[in-house]
Specification:
- The chain is mostly helical.
- Helix 1 packs antiparallel against helix 2 and helix 2 runs antiparallel to helix 3.
């Protein structure tokens, strides 16, 4: 239970930190790095979306997180591998 509380707290810090960091990297004309930072944020978005869906029946953030993870992964493939 204590580990879950620590993870929840870390999630609340990492979601905005990584997401804003990704936006800053993109704004500074480093979109390939912005995509990587954003992909690092996605597990925390997925976790929060899952919890919102399970506890409050709000599926929108979870579906959005899944789609955004797929799109971000496609962007990384585009920048780094093609």
């Amino acid at each position: 239970m204590e580990n879950q509380r620590i993870f929840n707290s870390a999630t609340q810090v990492l979601i905005p930190s990584l997401t804003i960091g990704a936006q800053v990297a993109t704004a500074l004309k480093y979109p390939e790095y912005g995509l990587i930072v954003n992909l690092c944020a996605q597990p925390f978005w997925l976790y929060s979306g899952w919890k919102a869906w399970r506890k409050a029946g709000q599926s929108g953030i979870f579906v959005n997180s899944i789609l955004f993870t797929i799109i971000t992964t496609m962007g990384i493939v585009n920048y780094w591998f093609i």
